[in-house]
Amino acid sequence: MRIVQIKISNFRGIRSCELLLPKHAVLIGDNNVGKSTLLEAVDLCLGPDRLSRQPPVDEHDFHLGSYLSSKPAAPVTAEPAEAGPAAAEEVAAEPAAEAGAAVPEGGLQAANPMIEVEVTITDLSEEQQDHFGEQIEWWDTGTNALYTGDAAGLDGATASPAIRVTFQGFYDEEEDDFAGSTVYTRSIDEDEKPTPFSKRDKQKCGFLYLRTLRTGSRALSLERGSLLDIILRLKEIRPRMWEDTIKSLKALDVAADPELGVSGILESVNKALKKYVPREWGANPHLRVSTLTREHLRKVITAFIATGDGKHAAPFYRQGTGTINMLVLALLSQIAEDKQNVIFAMEEVETAIPPYAQKRIVHELRKLSAQSLLTSHSPYVLEEFDIDETVILSRTADGVLSKATVQLPDSVKLKRYRQEFRQRFCEGLLAGRVLIVEGATEASSYPAAARRLAELDDKKYASLEALGICVIDAGTDSQVAVMAKLYRDLGKRTFGACDKQEDAAKIAIEAQVEKLFMHDEHGFEDLILKETKPEALARFAGIVQWPPHLLQKFGDIFGDIEANAAQALPELFKWGKGGWSLADFLAQCTEEEIPKFLKDACISLKQLCAPEETDAEMPPEDGVANAA
User: Which residue has the higher pLDDT, 104 or 593?
Assistant: First the structure.
């Protein structure tokens, strides 16, 4: 069983999206792009306990917080048929995001916006096919779309049984509250009353949404929906411990020992109580360890785990974050072994986990589940997924979420991509903006210059990190256009920086980047040495740790390296090319000493990525778009 398609409209930061998903996928993209929102949307459809929360959605779950129609209600008539085709057209003209909202009996009204999430699930087991029965549809794996032909054509089609499930959430004006339900999508069009997709149906799907910080905090408790509770329900174990536990706790009178002093105070309260009210109103106050109800015991009973080499045990949630995460994985394995057909969705699997353990979790999830959907910012997690399993999400300013997958250019072979993934490709996949430079020296120098300028004047400049720009080393000037196209095709904002190029090469790069920063020198070191000030060179020559061969050479020839920095530093930069010597030089310069080309580039990048907002552009405090 796996999710092959998800459609979302009007949910949080997503106005609309329609995505196809592979069997296993890692969802990546810039922060707040909609990764968590996507998994939350699936949880609304398939999470067995998600809709038990009342209300199931609230104001902030609607895109831009809009849950009321901006159009006035249509007038109610005694005979709606007399309204004619014009009125019907007016109602039909409502935006797609507002279609389908519940209409109160007694007349027409403008439809309120509705949250809709549709999930298509395929690869159903025989048991699931028997359970879902008449709601079964067919998914054509050849066209990646729902099969619409007649039954006779199924034999020759690459189709498999599937079900579609839709969650609908809206504001109910009559109840003055938010409402939501999950139904079989097929029944929406075919039946007058859509068929509910019940909690029992959802349990058959086996969707588990694991948010480390939230799931781990109650994993080994008996709260409803905890991992331990899920395991007990899957094994159909109903612990018969409540009656015995409550009976034992009733016999335990806390602080009954008179030497503690508490019982004496309670007896004084009892005597005072008798002065004012009859005994049957209340008597004999005493202390118990809980409210002695099953629900309260579920919340207070928790597992203890021994720590270190000793026998002392502490509550599991007081363990280290990494230990809790691995504990969650152990519980997941139990769930998967019992259910055999599980969809795992997990956020930030790498939280507080060392790299080798991150890889172990990914392998276990893939092995244990029918489908795994992960979000991550870790290169160690990302490199465990194939290119077609790496789903890069992007979202437009008006809330349209889309995906892209990596398409390697001819000059970048799969072997190189995998070998250089951590140091060259991963950071760009995770960022929203990339600056492609031609070599390692530039890759270290541009961030150093921007960071130094921001320290000197933060109103005029900003560090590349603050602008959300990552720097990618293309390796050579001939690869700048190639790498820029790779990231541009993934929906990234791309910028380029290079030495002076021939016209044809310049045109090729400019075609792939939003803006190209090209200086007139044939080497980056030449630019720095030509445009900086002599005092900056002399100061750096006095503080840098010179390699022995250069110290000996210039000490013998000139005697004083600082006095002859202009001759010595070019050789130092050449010797340290690809290292950090040039970046270290820029990091100790004043604003006047940093080359004008770099200052202009930093100013331009800030204007492009973080333009100053005028008062007219500033959104009202209550009009901020929903976080994704």
Answer: 593
